[in-house]
Design goal:
- By secondary structure, this protein is α+β, with helices and mostly antiparallel strands.
- Among the domains are: 196 residues, YVTN repeat-like/Quinoprotein amine dehydrogenase (Methylamine Dehydrogenase, Chain H), CATH 2.130.10.10; 48 residues.
- It has 7 helices and 61 strands.
- The strands form 14 sheets. Strands 18, 19, 20, 21, 22, 24 and 25 form a 7-stranded antiparallel sheet that branches. Strands 23, 26, 27, 28, 29 and 30 form a 6-stranded mixed sheet that branches.
- Associates with components of the nexin-dynein regulatory complex (N-DRC), a key regulator of ciliary/flagellar motility, and might act as an inner dynein arm (IDA) hub or linkage.
- Its main location: cytoplasm.
- Keywords: Cell projection, Coiled coil, Cytoplasm, Cytoskeleton, Repeat, WD repeat.
- May form homodimers. Associates with components of the nexin-dynein regulatory complex (N-DRC) and the CFAP184:CFAP263 complex.
């Protein structure tokens, strides 16, 4: 990370295209989107705090604040994916509470958000084609319900919760108006609208079940419980005299009109423009906001209607308000044609004292609702909440040295002069032409602006911007004052014009660019000018000669911005090739990558230690200089569009950035390492301003007039004060007389009241004594009554004891009788219910089919009934709410009466408690007796359960025996089939085994061949490595020889230079001789130079011969290697194909073998099992024949000998259990392998015997 840090201080701008873009946090703080931030702005103290958007955010779409003002939800698009971020506003700084970015449903973006009244749930509406409404429990990131609001791909504009009910939801859009209710985990439509659907642009809740909805045709609808109650149309008449009146049908309202701000941008992008017909226009209702007295709604461009409710009925007071226009621009030829702006959002403060509105031209307005003009029906005025803001991309940015001023120009035809110390707007003016560039003189008194038609030089006066010189330069995209202020440069296409500020003449024209010039910059001493353009050229111009000193042309890159280091040695340029270039001496020193982002602007500090670049994504990157090669920089999410301009103030304390989103950011910059920060200013900012002589004279004349007016007013005020003093003194005398008379009357009244009080005290004492006597009498009466009641209760208790004894005897007799009857009834019931079971099963199947049909019918009727009942429930709800109110009032009356009765009841209750203690002791004994009775009843139930369980076990065992018999018969049938299959499989196995053996032998042979080929390959690789080593050795020798050659060439150059020096002394033989001798001593140091030269030639010849020989050998070896490689590859491919075919055949054979073995194993296991089981079944066939014959004889005596039958059944159950255990032992025993099964005829005969 870089040590250079930038901290956002203030922003001048608004993003109007965000849904619900104004929110109140409290009475003083509002929240609005600006750039890629949400701004908390204190209206009174004028400070700003920032809530940053998500990293890599592409667009902010919607905002919503919770009703408890604790949470803020922001809908964004991050890397083409929708994200909802919920911030906790109470923490400082605001922290992320939840991020919703994992969705189980398809979604492109969320266009509207809303919190529930308790702030636990969140509504989110997706854009078409999905158009889903999502109901979230956002704390747990859980989707409670989801529903598609529109199936025809119409846009949905707004969703909201009922202010009192979490489960009631409203959705409006183009042809969409739905009231939904959350029940049983789903969102269901509560009511269906009748009549023609409109393009519903906005809505608001004015009560629990009342909704006001506005359309694009100027209509307002009131819906109550989903049904339309009334309709209002707004018609705006525009007469020719210039005055504007507004007619509202069926209702009266207040008209609030906004001052216009000119802008070339169209009005709200999602809505349809209002149609006009013969001076009549239909206003569009883009925004509605409710408050306690009624609601406010937009009514076409620059107007707001205020509906103030009078009484309980739907009657609204009529108040007409007119708004004051902004001062007309003197440059404008037709000031009446200034563009209007649509109101996109309205918001009341929590105390409903202020109404804030945002418009399509990025402006914020406010009006106080407590104005006397609104109450009286006089003219009232909307005011700017902060100051006029830019409504289009900012094209120019400039600052000066002597004043803390910032100058900006924009495509909205306006010029703004800001103060970055106080964060205020100093000057503001609109023009008829678009402004493309601006520059501020170092003194802060002049600006030069490039308009579409001309280049103008202007004075910055106290309250105005006035032009004093115009140049015929059309559409100058760049202009700049020099650092000294004596020159300024302006771009005209591909030519740069240099002007002086003294005589205002063009002294130089710099030509050389073939494309448009995008950026110009002066060096520190104003001796050079650097320019960069779309033709990929960066030129450095010398202003003394008017010629290029250095140039760097790269046609593949279109440069966006250039700057120069403080020492004027290095030029920095950014363009469309995703790099930052360092250029010096007409060549590119370094290219630092931008990591898939286009740099659009660049700025370097005056200390040369900090550098800032702006990107096409709207981010700011801060890095230190010299630039690092790695990714070492701090990146800040700032703007919502490409950065257009970037500047540092002269003292390197503040960074200024502008972008296409129309926002201006000021940043505090500093270096953590403490490098590069300039010292504090020794001289403060200048406070002088420019004023024209005519203005001064006018103001002096106005001052004189005001002074005379003040003196006159003083005289008038003194006279009026004297008159008032006289009047007040007379009034005071009258009041004192009145007060004395009232005091005397009050004293007499006080005495009368005292006497009455004494009388009331005496009467009260007598009354209390009477009450005490009554209470004592009532106590005695109650004691006597309670004694009599106790005697009666004791007698009743004795009677109950006798009854309980009798009951016990009767219960014992009944138990004996029940035991006898139950045993008989059990046998009868078993037979009866067995027959019934079969009947019921058939009936059950028929009933199930009937139930299915009834269920289908029921579901259809249920849907119809639910729709009808929802409407009835709402009607019933209103009726019962009225009844509830009446009953609550009656309850309050009754509560007063019960309070008196409670006091009497408490005294009596104490006596009753004493008597109840005695009764409790008696009840305790009664409970013991009841416990004995319950224990006996439990024993009876236990015996019943045992009988039922035994019956069930008998039935289960009989079923198991029957199933086992069936399985034995099926196994006998399978045995014959399996024997035949085993024989056939054995015949097939033998030839397959022979084929497998042959295949295995082939595989072994092929593996041996493979090993042989591998050995050949290794040998060839060794040969190649040897050849490579020889090649490397020859290369090293070649490098040595080349180095020697370079050394000799260098020696020859030195000798030539020395020889050239000797030639200079050709006229002087003595000096020439000395120089030649020096050359000889320097270069001819050995006597055998001739021999060495001869040897060198021989060595070179031998070297060339050896080299040619080695090259021939290497070429032949390469050819051989290539041929052998191709042969080896073809042979290897052929072997691999054969291996693959063999392996597939082996695998198929193995599968068949495995399958046959499993079949053989299953057949052998089945055969062994049947051989073991069969003899025992034959042996048990005898006793089973006698069982059916015994059953009828036993059933003859069922009624007489019930006990004997039960014993016989128990013996039968025991015998069956023994048989089952023996069979289970036999099935797990497999020792008899050689035993043969009996024949099929015998088994069939046995089965017939058993069944008979």
């Amino acid at each position: 990370m870089s040590s250079v840090v930038a901290q956002s201080l203030h922003v001048f701008g608004l993003r109007s295209r965000v849904a619900n873009n104004i929110l109140y946090f409290d009475e003083q703080i509002i929240i609005f989107p600006s750039g890629n931030y949400c701004v908390k702005y204190n209206v009174d103290q004028k400070w700003q705090k920032f809530i940053p958007g998500s990293d890599r955010s592409q667009a902010m779409l919607a905002l919503s604040i919770s009703p408890n003002r604790r949470y803020l939800a922001i809908s964004e698009t991050v890397q083409e994916k929708p994200v909802i971020t919920i911030y906790e506003l109470s923490s400082v700084p605001c922290r992320k509470r939840r991020v919703l970015n994992n969705f189980d449903f398809q979604v492109q973006k969320f266009i509207s958000l809303a919190f529930s009244p308790d702030s636990k749930y969140l509504l989110a509406q997706t854009s078409p084609p999905e158009s889903n409404l999502v109901y979230w429990l956002w704390e747990k990131q859980k989707v409670m319900a989801i529903i598609r609001t529109d199936t025809q791909n119409n846009p949905v504009y707004q969703v909201s919760f009922s202010p009192q009910d979490n489960t009631q939801v409203c959705v409006t859009g183009n042809g969409v108006f739905k009231l939904l209710r959350f029940t049983e985990g789903t969102l269901k439509q509560a009511s269906f609208q009748r009549g023609e659907l409109q393009n519903y642009l906005a809505h608001t809740w004015v009560a629990n079940d009342r909704i006001i909805v506005g359309t694009d045709t100027g209509k307002l609808f009131l819906f109550e419980s989903g049904e339309q109650r009334w309709e209002t149309s707004i018609m705006v008449k525009e007469p020719t005299l210039g005055s504007k009146s507004l007619d509202v049908i069926q209702e009266s309202e207040s008209l609030i009109e906004f001052p216009p701000v000119s802008s070339p941008l169209p009005s709200y992008e999602q809505m349809v423009a209002a149609s006009s017909h013969s001076q009549m226009s239909m206003p569009q209702v883009f925004a509605i906001a409710a408050y306690s007295k009624g609601f406010a709604c937009s009514a076409g461009p620059g107007r707001v209607l205020l509906f103030e409710k009078m009484g309980e009925k739907d009657v609204y007071r009529e108040t007409v308000l007119h708004l004051e226009q902004l001062p007309v621009d003197p440059q404008s030829s037709d000031p009446s044609q200034s563009d209007k702006q649509d109101i996109l959002c309205l918001c009341f403060s929590p105390s409903e004292e202020t109404l804030v509105a945002s418009t399509s031209k990025n402006q914020l307005y406010s009006i106080t609702m407590s104005l006397t003009e609104i109450s009286k029906g006089e003219a009232a005025h909307f005011e700017y909440l902060m100051y006029p803001l830019h409504s289009a991309p900012i094209t120019g940015l400039a600052t000066c040295i002597r004043k803390p001023l910032i100058a900006t120009c924009s495509l909205d035809r306006s010029i703004h002069i800001w103060n970055y110390e106080t964060n205020t707007l100093e000057l503001y003016k609109e023009y008829q032409e678009e402004a493309y560039s601006i520059s501020l003189h170092p003194s802060g008194h002049f600006i030069v602006v490039g308009f579409a038609d001309k280049l103008r030089l202007m004075n910055l006066l106290v309250d105005d911007i006035r032009s004093f010189k115009e140049y015929s330069v059309r559409g100058s995209r760049e202009c700049s004052f020099s650092n000294g202020g004596h020159l300024f440069a302006a771009v005209n296409g591909n030519v740069i014009h240099i002007y002086t500020t003294t005589n205002l003449e063009n002294i130089l024209s710099l030509k050389g660019h073939t494309g448009k010039i995008r950026s110009i910059v002066w060096n520190a001493d104003d001796s050079k000018l650097i320019s960069g353009g779309t033709d990929g050229a960066v030129y450095e111009w010398n202003l003394s000669t008017g010629k290029r000193e250095t140039e760097c042309v790269l046609k593949s890159c279109s440069y966006n911005c250039v700057t120069i280091s403080p020492d004027a040695k290095i030029i920095f340029a950014v363009g469309t090739d995703y790099t930052l270039k360092e250029i010096a001496d007409s060549s590119i020193l370094r290219e630092i990558p931008a990591f898939d982002v286009t740099y659009t602007a660049i700025a370097i500090s005056h200390s040369g230690r900090m550098m800032f670049v702006g990107t096409s994504l709207g981010t700011i990157r801060a890095m230190r200089y010299p630039l690092p090669l790695q990714k070492e920089f701090n990146e800040y999410q700032a703007h919502a569009g490409p950065v257009t301009k970037m500047l540092l103030t002269f003292d390197d304390q503040f960074l200024l950035t502008t972008a296409e989103d129309g926002c201006l950011f000021t940043w505090k910059v500093f270096d953590k390492d403490g490098r590069g920060i300039k010292r504090e200013r020794e001289v403060g900012f200048a406070e002088e301003v420019l004023v024209t002589k005519a203005d001064m004279e006018e103001k002096a004349q106005v001052m004189l007039e005001l002074k005379t007016r003040v003196e006159e007013l003083k005289m008038e005020n003194e006279y009026q004060l004297r008159l008032k003093d006289m009047n007040y003194s007379e009034k005071i005398k009258d009041l004192t007389d009145k007060f004395v008379q009232e005091m005397e009357s009050l004293k007499t009244k006080n005495q009368v009241l005292l006497t009455e009080k004494e009388k009331q005290d005496i009467s009260h004492r007598e009354h209390v004594e009477e009450l005490l006597d009554k209470q004592s009498r009532e106590l005695q009466d109650l004691e006597s009554c309670n004694n009599q009641k106790l005697l009666l209760e004791y007698e009743k208790y004795q009677e109950l004891q006798l009854k309980s004894q009798r009951m016990q005897e009767e219960y014992e007799k009944q138990l004996r009788d029940n035991d006898e009857t139950k045993s008989q009834a059990l046998e009868e019931l078993t037979e009866f219910y067995e027959a019934k079971l079969q009947e019921k099963t058939t009936l059950l199947e028929e009933a199930q089919e009937d139930v299915r049909q009834q269920l289908r019918e029921f579901e259809e009727t249920k849907k119809q009934i639910e729709e009808d009942e929802d409407q009835e429930i709402q009607d019933i709800k209103t009726k019962y709410e009225k009844k509830l109110r009446d009953e609550k009032e009656s309850n309050l009356r009754l509560k007063g009466e019960t309070g008196i009765m409670k006091k009497k009841f408490s005294s009596l209750q104490k006596e009753i408690e004493e008597r109840t203690n005695d009764i409790k002791t008696l009840k305790g004994e009664q409970v013991k007796l009841q416990g004995v009775i319950k224990s006996l009843e439990k024993d009876i139930q236990g015996f019943k359960r045992e009988i039922q369980e035994r019956d069930e076990t008998i039935q289960d065992k009989e079923k198991q025996i029957y199933d086992l018999k069936k399985k034995n018969q099926e196994l006998e049938k399978f045995k014959f089939v399996l024997d035949y299959k085993i024989k056939e499989l054995k015949k097939q196995i033998e030839p397959r085994e022979n084929e497998i053996r042959v295949m295995k032998e082939q595989i072994q042979e092929m593996e041996a061949e493979l090993e042989h080929f591998h050995k050949q390959n290794t040998q060839l690789e060794l040969n190649i490595t040897e050849l490579w080593q020889k090649l490397r050795a020859t290369n090293q020798e070649m490098r040595r020889e080349r180095q020697k050659e370079r050394d000799l060439e260098a020696l020859v150059r030195r000798f030539k230079t020395d020889l050239h020096d000797c030639v200079a002394y050709i006229q002087e033989p003595r000096l020439l001789k000395e120089k030649v001798r020096g050359l000889f001593e320097k270069y001819v140091q050995r006597a055998d130079m001739v021999e060495i030269a001869g040897l060198n030639t021989d060595l070179q010849q031998e070297f060339s011969r050896q080299r040619e020989h080695l090259e021939r050998n290497l070429a032949t070896l390469k050819k051989n290697v290539v041929k052998e490689g191709e042969l080896h590859r073809t042979h290897y491919v052929r072997i691999m194909q054969e291996n693959v075919s063999l392996i597939t055949e082996i695998n198929e054979l193995r599968r068949e073998l495995k399958f046959t073995r499993s079949q053989v194993y299953d057949l052998e296991a089945a055969l062994k099992l049947t051989k073991k089981v069969r003899p025992q079944e034959v042996s048990e066939a005898g006793p089973r024949k006698d069982m059916p014959s015994m059953a009828p004889t036993m059933r003859l005596n069922e009624q007489e000998e019930t006990g004997r039958i039960i014993e016989m059944q128990r013996l039968e159950i025991q015998r069956l259990r023994d048989q089952i255990q023996e069979q289970e032992q036999v099935t797990g025993f497999h020792t008899l392998t050689g035993a043969r099964l009996p024949s099929l005829s015998n088994s069939e005969a046995d089965f017939e015997v058993k069944t008979n």
